[in-house]
Design goal:
The protein has about 300 residues and is an alpha/beta fold. It is built from 10 helices and 10 strands. The chain has 2 domains: about 250 residues, von Willebrand factor, type A domain (Rossmann fold), CATH 3.40.50.410; about 35 residues, no CATH class. The N and C termini lie far apart (about 50 Å).
């Protein structure tokens, strides 16, 4: 039996994200993710302007005038949500933690997928694969996915993206959309891709359509002026003392964090991965819509 407060939270997320899907992202998901191929639909008479390569010569010979084959894109896809549930995801300096924002993004993408009759699966990872929910369709399945992202209690606190992507490669037999939702904080505490992570992303993107959504929090990018603070790394347990009362210290921290974000975006581009950076203290709908629009524009150019 699911507690009432959990059901209420999930229902609130469903209502918010369904509105975003309807008002902001209607049709965008369909236009930016390709199907697995082209399926034969029908044969029709040739019309001026048709591609001559589509002519069905057998039918043309029988009918004594040209006919062409018509194909439609095979639309049914699988969306696999690969969500980081390591210890750093519990951080949030405002009303929302990174884990909660991850759940909302998972909900937006999942509801967009099932509106296009696609399947949705979930893989939660820390430094181990924590849980895997096979792809399925339907609202009740999406609500289960949201619940797991929000409330699953991982057994580990670290992070190992290559292990998660290697597992995904074993369980997904066909080309799928893979949305990696993470803060991309490395085992060393910095925001970056390690060499094994870059390699794993390149390999995964050869077979699947991988996109990366980075979740950050305001106070991971800029320190508040609160004097001396003792901080504990949520993943490694390392203790660090920081003097946030120093303007120079705060400015240096902000510059370093901004450079890390820019370096991460470059690393993802170099790996052939489309990426998006979102913050817990900012509305995400507009950023997600821009991401879809930019991706759609690139697809049309190619």
């Amino acid at each position: 039996m699911i507690p009432r407060e959990i059901l209420k939270k999930i229902r609130q997320i469903e209502l918010r994200t369904n509105r975003i899907v309807t008002e902001t992202l209607a049709g965008a998901y369909h236009s930016v993710f390709k199907g697995q191929g082209m399926n034969f639909d029908e044969v029709r008479e040739y019309q001026p302007g048709d591609d001559v390569r589509a002519i069905d010569w057998n039918v043309t010979a029988r009918m004594n005038h040209p006919f062409v084959k018509k194909f439609i894109e095979e639309r049914e896809l699988t969306l696999m949500l690969v969500v980081d549930v390591s210890g750093s995801g519990l951080f949030g300096s405002r009303d929302q933690s990174k884990r909660e924002l991850s759940a909302e993004l998972a909900s937006v993408l999942a509801f967009s997928a099932i509106r296009n009759n696609d399947k949705v699966g979930l893989l939660l990872y820390s430094n181990e694969v924590e849980t895997f929910i096979p792809p399925r369709k339907g609202r009740s399945h999406v609500l289960r996915v949201i619940r797991e992202v929000l409330y699953f209690e991982p057994q580990n606190r670290g992070t190992n993206l290559p292990k998660a992507l290697e597992f995904m490669g074993r369980v997904l037999p066909h080309r799928s959309i893979c949305a990696v939702i993470s803060d991309f904080i490395s085992p060393h505490g910095s925001v970056e891709l390690t060499r094994p992570e870059q390699t794993a992303l390149r390999i995964a993107n050869r077979r699947h359509d991988v996109v990366a959504i980075q979740i950050t929090d305001r106070h991971e990018l800029e320190l508040p002026a609160l004097g001396r603070l003792v901080l504990e790394d949520a993943e490694t347990g390392e203790i660090l003392e920081v003097n946030t009362g120093s303007v120079d210290c705060r400015n240096a921290f902000a510059l370093r964090q901004q450079k890390q974000l820019e370096d991460l975006a470059r690393q993802l581009r170099a790996s052939g991965i489309d990426s998006l950076q979102l913050r817990t203290d900012e509305a995400y709908a507009a950023g997600l819509a821009r991401f879809f629009e930019n991706r759609r524009s690139r697809r049309l150019r190619h």
